[in-house]
Amino acid sequence: MGKIHVVTDSGSDLALEVKERLGIHVVPLTVQFGSEIFKDGVEISVADFYAKLKTESEMPSTCQPSPADFVAMYEKIAEPGDTIISVHLSSKMSGTYQSAVLASTMLDSSIKVITVDSKAASMGLGLVAVTAAEGVQAGKDLDEILSDVQHVIDHLQVYFVVDTLEFLKKNGRIALAQALVGTMLSIKPILTLVDGEVAPFEKIRGKAKALKRVRELILEFQARSREKTIRAALSHATAPEEAEQVIDALKLVLPVGGEVVVGEIGPTIGVHTGPGVVALFLCAV
Amino acid sequence: MDVINGVTLKNMLLVAARNLDQQKDMVNALNVFPVPDGDTGTNMSLTLNAAVKELERAENNDVNRLTTLLARGSLMGARGNSGVILSQFFRGFSDGLAQVKAEATGEDVARAFTSASNTTYRAVMKPVEGTMLTVARVAAESAEEAAQEGKDAAGVIKAALLGAQQSLADTPNILPVLKEAGVVDAGGQGLVCIFEGFWAGLTTSPEEMEAILAEQQVPSEGPVDVARLETEVLVNKYCTEFIILGEGIDPERIRKKLDPLGDSMIVVGDDHVTKVHIHTDHPGEVLQFCGELGNLTEIAIDNMMLQNQEFSNHENHRLDYTTDNVVGFPQPEPSAPPKPVGLVAVVAGDGLAEIFRSLGVDQVVTGGQTMNPSTEDLVTAVNSVNAESVIILPNNKNVIFAAQQVKELVDKKVGVVPTRSAPQGISALMFFVEGDSLEENVAAMEDSLGEVKTGEVTYAVRSTVAGDLQIEERDIIGLAEGKIAIVGSTPDQVAFDLVKTMVDEDSTVISVYYGADQSAEAAEELGTTLQEEYPDCEVEVYSGGQPLYYYIVSVE
How far apart, in Å, do the first and last CA atoms of chain A sit? Predict the structure, then answer.
């Protein structure tokens, strides 16, 4: 019986400490500013990215890892007989999952790769990867881990607030949220993910009000999730104080000893959402 | 006069319409709040005028045919709450005479007044005594009493008039707000004007009435401009009406340009169609100016001095330069599939109209503060939206009632979210979800109404006392949720003080919509001052372009 490894991509926004503690391997996407290309987290830091976002006139873009990048990662971490759970950004948002699927067919059959479409992004994907890695550490068998992973994917509730819809719009990641674009008032919508895509949840005027509403949504989620344990993750883009407000609200609904998994939104996601984002991920297990 | 036949009835209605039209400024001056809007007299007069205009369609002078047309005309022409109630009055009046063809007896007339009173009471959800409802009821009671005493038709009408006058004088004793403001109920006064016209119309023709009214020094207690009333019958004799077809026409600009040319001006429209109505001595200048803005159609110029012999002669004086069959709002492209739920909003001001459109409103009906749109304007707008069902945002307390009337007049399913201000309308739109049903959306939008507080800054049109506040004419006043809260001398200071009464610890957004007469610089400065005062709130400043109101502010 070989080992089970967990691989994700840089769209998961997992903090270094979490990745190291749980042994999660991350394949970076690349971020491109004009002709400059950086591997997320390897060649550009979160701080450098947002600084550059302010000064560069051109909108950056991202590029999925090549299948070869995945093959290289898989071969580096796995021995023959091992299994890899490879969880990735929603296939509706990125070709990363597709690359991983291709890579899995290019490997020697002695390494088994199970590719998983998380239908999420940022810490939502992060939470799926964490669930898998915790299962591995707890010594659960593969079927049980995959069942846990599927449960999180199916029950993940996402709410996020952006400062501006410009980034989502320019990158074409907001097909369903189109209705919100072009309004004259400064609306801070609460967005969600529906079946792996960005969708509008509520229109709110003003960020403070939007964050207040997010805190209410936490309580509503708790009310719907009686008798269950809530798992929560949060990520933010250069908005630590606003994130803190939401974390305080989260602490009230988490079980004793429960922890909010917090991450900073890195370049991969930040390219599409811009600065000032606060994103909340909830799941009842 | 023992009985009333159709010819007399028509005469009574025409004289009533003339009388009310002459006295509408006096009725307007009776508003409890001295704000430059909510013109009860204008609304009732326009409603009645629309109703008597419908009488032209009568192919005979059967009493019940005439009253049916009267009811229909008033329903479609209803403007403002008082106009809607008046239309319900005529609806009931018509029901009461449904069986009468040739001649109405005193009993018939009394029954019509009673039916009219009952219908007005049923029309409002919470009837308030001391209003035109009371005046209508007391008039009906007096009429019934007279009929039982065996009085003839003329006697019954006289009794109704006397009852109405007494009841009107009593309204300040029933409604404390009237007493405080030192006025009688405006709607009740409008009804008395109509009954006076009924009485006079029994024996007087409209043109004789015109002469009498011209002679009369119109009784004026409020700030009624007597000189203007007197001259009104001499000048501005051409009633000029037409439609301008063209994109991006600014009704406010037309109003400013035409204002010196005449009176009784109405300019309403949407992006593509603008309706203009004005009484002027210079119809040529009016047409020339507006002709430069777009294509004119449905042009009608009536000489009001000559037109009163018989309303049925009306057509003879009508210069009809119809160039196009397009009337009202353009129909949507038939190829596009209808949306499940469309949106219509009533908004005054280009800036606010633009904001409402950007939030997904399909048709903006201009109106609200200066001019309440008629039920027909709303019906037209609803019909022009390519949607299976339509939600109306009245955005003014005086339009809600007219909007609710639309439900009965169109084939589409219509929902009304009773928004009382533009900010409430904006707040409601935040809760509109495309794809949800009409009912779900209306429920969610209604729930949102408490989320936002509205303040308005305008000027007082007359001196009054409101609670502890002594208000002089032309003072700047600030209203919070429709109640006078601040009195001052500059719009900016009043707006600042007003916001202070509205902000609490839960407030997060302060929005300022500045009016047509307010400069962007002044508004930005107000915004900066507010931002300094409330660092925890987001302060946003937009051009609303609304008339009469220097600022509309909202706190949420």
Answer: 28
Both tokens of residue B87?
Answer: 């239309």
Mean of the pLDDT values across residues B19-40? Answer: 80
> Would you identify the CATH topology of the domain B453-555?
Hypothetical Protein Tm841; Chain: A;domain 3 (3.30.1180)
List, for residues A176-214, the tens digit of each pLDDT value. 445 555 556 778 888 999 999 888 888 888 888 899 999
* CATH classification of the domain holding A198: 3.30.1180.10
Give the ipTM: 0.72
CB contact under 8 A, A209 and B536: no
Select the residue of B358, B434, B508 nearest A209 (Cβ to Cβ): B508
Give the CA dihedral A91, A94, A97, A101, nearest 10 degrees.
Answer: 100
Interface of A with B in 177-206 (CB under 8 A): 179, 182-187, 202-206
CATH homologous superfamily for B4-230? DhaL domain (1.25.40.340)
**pLDDT band at residue A283 using 50, 70 and 90 as cut-offs:** very high
Q: What is the pLDDT of residues B266-306, one digit of tens each?
A: 766 666 777 777 778 888 888 888 888 888 877 777 766 55
In this complex, which of A179, A186, A209 lies closest to B360 when CB atoms are compared? A179
Instruction: Count how many pairs of residues, chain A against chain B, have C-beta atoms within 8 Å.
Output: 47
Res B311 pLDDT > 60: no
A180: its two tokens: 């919100």
Last residue of a domain, one of A154, A183, A209: A154
**Mutation test of the interface with chain A: which of B430, B510, B513, B530, choosing the one with the most A Cβ atoms within 10 A?**
B430
For residues B356 and B58, the answer to whether their CB atoms sit within 8 Å is no
Which residue in chain A is spatially nearest to B539 when comparing CA positions?
A206
Q: CA nearest B52: which of B230, B157, B194, B156?
A: B194
State the residue range of the domain holding A272.
157-284
Q: Given this model, what pLDDT does residue B370 score?
A: 61
Domain count, chain A: 2
Q: Tell me if A203 and B540 make a contact (CB, 8 A cut-off).
A: no
Chain B closest-CA separation from residue A206 CA (Å): 6
A208 touches chain B (CB under 8 A): yes
Per CB-CB distance under 8 Å, the chain A contacts of B426 are 185, 205
User: What's the average model confidence in pLDDT over A231-235?
Assistant: 94
**Burial group, residue B118, by CB count within 10 angstroms (0-12, 13-18, 19+):** middle
Identify the residue whose tokens are 């007044």: B113
In this prediction, residues B386-406 reach a mean pLDDT of: 93
